[in-house]
């Protein structure tokens, strides 16, 4: 299973893939992959908290298989910090809402469901220097 460092690299690579898909006007794929940027980043954070690699066995490994950001936030010990940020920073809250509307079920959406603007908004919500979600997680992973 991947190490914390490998999860970080996967997350960064997924983001670069989002950018490539966006540049090639493959907006559905870009939007779909954007969720995995956050998922793998949060899993890297969980590995930090566990002081371990991605768990292969045991009870925690079942929780680790989730795509649910709220579960990964809790496993990563970020709930209190996230709640504080959401309550005090409207821009961050907007970005969080945009990014966490993602679901792995996006892979089944009809082609053409996502627009250029959708993906631009997601990229901005991920990378905003002050209030980006990916930026925020990377400070904690």
Question: Notable features of this structure?
Answer:
141 residues, mainly alpha, Four Helix Bundle (Hemerythrin (Met), subunit A), 8 helices
- The CATH level-2 architecture is identified as Up-down Bundle
* Strand percent estimate: under 5%
Query: Which residue ranges are poorly predicted, with pLDDT under 50 across at least 5 consecutive positions?
Result: none
Count of beta strands: 0
The tally of structural domains comes to: 1
Given the helix and strand composition, which structural class is it?
Answer: mainly alpha
**What is the class in the CATH system?**
Mainly Alpha
Mean pLDDT: 92
Question: Which fold name fills CATH's third level, the topology?
Answer: Four Helix Bundle (Hemerythrin (Met), subunit A)
How far is the first residue's CA from the last residue's CA? 18 Å
Helix content: 55-70%
Question: What is the H/E order?
Answer: HHHHHHHH
What's the main sheet like? none
**Number of alpha- plus pi-helical segments:** 8
Q: Rounded to an integer, what's the Rg over CA atoms?
A: 15 Å
Q: Per the principal axes of the C-alpha atoms, what is the gross shape?
A: globular
């Amino acid at each position: 299973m991947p190490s914390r460092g490998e999860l970080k690299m996967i997350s960064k690579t997924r983001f670069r893939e989002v950018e490539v898909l966006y540049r090639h006007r493959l907006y559905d794929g870009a939007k779909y992959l954007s969720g995995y940027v956050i998922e793998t980043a949060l899993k890297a954070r969980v590995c930090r908290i566990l002081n371990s690699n991605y768990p292969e066995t045991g009870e925690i490994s079942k929780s680790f298989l989730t795509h649910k950001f709220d579960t990964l936030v809790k496993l990563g010990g970020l709930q209190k910090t996230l709640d504080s940020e959401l309550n005090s920073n409207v821009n961050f809250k907007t970005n969080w809402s945009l990014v966490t509307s993602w679901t792995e079920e996006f892979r089944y959406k009809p082609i053409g469901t996502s627009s250029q603007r959708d993906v631009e908004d997601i990229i901005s919500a991920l990378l905003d220097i002050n209030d980006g979600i990916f930026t925020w997680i990377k400070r904690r992973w």
